[in-house]
């Protein structure tokens, strides 16, 4: 006779994010999945998301409905309109820096997508089941309408950075509704508070955890991809909007200017024309093990995007002892470099060339920065401390909800 199943009485937590799953490599989506899976140790976790894999079109590629991924229940909704990126970008340009109405901003939000009105409707009817609801990324349709539908238990993880849409009036609503905030870095929190009045609502700089790993097999990676020369690495979506076009222009100058120049290896999804620059090699999408080996073997990890709220890639590289070279246009990235003494930053092409040449040539500097980076990640970016901060926010929201219910009675 089989044993009776024990009723799961753990509190329920919901997570709202635009895409979800192991095949999704976006930064905020990766963070949401990592947090959801770890919260599932103490809560019953349900993720509300879409059927999309591609953030460019939001095309439905996964099955609608309820499934499980590991310890997490996942509820997917069909995206009701695909996005035409060129048309969306053209419409955006009519709003950025120009006088416009809130109605036009809401049209922009719908076109931005992913357009899943049924997700917000479902959340409104089921919100009281949840002890807390975590919303990831301030920018997208599900978070705006999801917060309006279920503000009572909301924790916003905005992954905010300085970009034109964040100054739209609709985002005053987004940042006014949550009961608490989880920021990736202190720089993100400072930036967000400079734009929005968050008052004294509970907040934490939660960050992300970087798991310690065994030293990767760098030599096997180099043999497999026929890499013989020193190289620097870019890992992530290869996109002009991520600063990659400018990075490649700077690299071409470095290649012409410096003797014994390192190659540049690109890994990740190509979202721009494949570069035809001497010394640049594109390896495509790598497994996690190969990515770690590529990072560990690089002279530097280059992070050119000015639009960052954390940069998982930078922290992964530091954890493996590889210094960073980052754009000075990102306060988040430069903060990492200053706090860790494990990276350099550039504001101009000339500074890029000089900094990269220094990191490639100076073994002692590179090793000292590598040691600093390991200590920085070990000190501030371990999952145990990250999840303690998430639990503190969840408990704070729970207490606020209890007081509100007591007053209502």
In short:
This protein has 409 residues and is an alpha/beta fold.
Describe this structure in words.
This protein is an alpha/beta fold and 409 residues long. It has two domains: 215 residues, Glycogen Phosphorylase B (Rossmann fold), CATH 3.40.50; 163 residues, Glycogen Phosphorylase B (Rossmann fold). The chain is 43% helix and 16% strand. It has 15 helices and 14 strands. An eight-stranded mixed sheet has the order 3-4-2-1-5-6-7-8, sandwiched between helices. It is globular, with a radius of gyration of 22 Å.
Key features?
single chain; 409 residues; alpha/beta; Rossmann fold; 2 domains; eight-stranded mixed sheet; three-stranded parallel sheet; globular; disordered C terminus
Which blocks of ≥5 consecutive residues have pLDDT under 50?
Answer: 405-409
Structural class: alpha/beta
Rg is: 22 Å
The number of helices is: 15
Instruction: Record the strand order, biggest sheet.
Output: 3-4-2-1-5-6-7-8
CATH superfamily of the largest domain: Glycogen Phosphorylase B
H/E series: EHEEEHHHEHEHEHEHEHEEHEHEHEHHH
By CATH reckoning, the class of the largest domain would read Alpha Beta
Question: In the residues, how many domains can be counted?
Answer: 2
Mean pLDDT: 93
Distance between the termini: 46 Å
Strand content: 15-25%
CATH level-two architecture of the largest domain? 3-Layer(aba) Sandwich
Instruction: Summarize the main sheet.
Output: 8 strands, mixed
